[in-house]
Structures are given as structure tokens and as C-alpha cells.
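Homework help board

Subject: predicted structure for assignment chain

Our instructor gave us this sequence and asked us to write out the predicted structure in C-alpha cell form, then describe one feature. I got the C-alpha cells but I'm not sure how to describe them. Can anyone check?
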Amino acid sequence: MRPFLITLAASLLIGCIFASPAYCEEKPDYRLHPSDVLTITVHGQPDLTTKTRVTLDGCITFPLIGKLSVDGLTVPETESRIKELLEKEYLVNANVMVFIEEYHPRQVSVMGEVKNPGKYDMPGEKDLTLVQAIAMSGGFTKHADITKTRVMRMEDGKKKTMVINAKDITEKGKQDEDVVLKPDDIVFVPESFF
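My C-alpha cell output:
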């Protein structure tokens, strides 16, 4: 009986450790953005341990290397880049680990005929849908034309607008028509003229 309890406790402890965002990323393909805060360690080199924020131009500063562009890189790509630069002139075998301590603020704007228009934080690194964002803003007002809800975003330097019939999602249960929002999207709910 006791070995079973010890095994169970160990499994739960390992599960908790690996479920923690500090130990593993929810999205391994997450790409670094300005304002992300990173902790970088190099095994056996405590003097190189660095906590740094990605600057607005997408760079970090790291000992021995100096300024390094990381904007748009994944954590493994960042680790490889730092390893490559350290091994080029300074270390024989650099074991580099990068942890994201803080994610950049991810927000969407919800405007128009909702009860509490404004900017809303996207939860962690999880997806946020159109209907969830509208719920965060208190829901539609009685004057809302929910059949012409718009999502506006910038893609490749161009403004893209999607018109979504939120009534189909909320009243007819068409969940597949709900749109996953991206950071900096603007949700606009127009006024009904009837």
C-alpha cells in the first residue's frame, strides 16, 4: 500500500511541476514579443544568469554577446542562437536555457454597443474568442446589431475586417463560427437602426 502512495505522490508532484508555466510553455511555438521578460541561464556558468526584458525593437542584452535580436523567435530558437554565439568565441559546450517569466501584455479592444467598452487582457497564453471578449465587456446592449459584429486586425501591414453574425453563435449554437481573436484585434458592435 505504501509504495503505491509514494508513487502517486511522486506522480502528482511531477505533474504539478510540469504543468507550471515556469517549467513548460503552454504553446511551444510561442514567438517572443517586445515586453516579454526572460530568464536565461547557462549550465555551469552562474555569472551568465540574466533576467532581461525584450525591448521595443525586439532585442535583449546578454553578457559576452551584447545586443541580440530575438523578436519572433521561439524559446528553442533563442536558446540555439545564444548557444551558437557563446560557442563561437567563449565556451566549448554551452547548455542554454530560456524561461519566459512574464508575457507581453496581450489585449483586445471591444467597442460600440457593449455594456463596458474598453481594452481587455487576453488570459495567459490561451485563446480568446469573439463571444468571450464580448462577455468580458459585459455583453451586448439592447441597441446592438449583433448580426454585423466586426473584428478588425492588422495582417502583413494591411487592415483586415471580418463581419460576424454573433446571433448565429449565441442563439443558434454555431460555435464553429466563433472567431479566435489575436492580440490588438478590435471588436466593434454597431448600433441597430430598428
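Reply (TA_rk): Your C-alpha cells look well-formed. For the description, you could write something like this. The beta strands are 37-42, 50-53, 59-62, 66-69, 96-102, 107-112, 118-121, 149-155, 158-164, 186-189. That's the kind of observation they're looking for.
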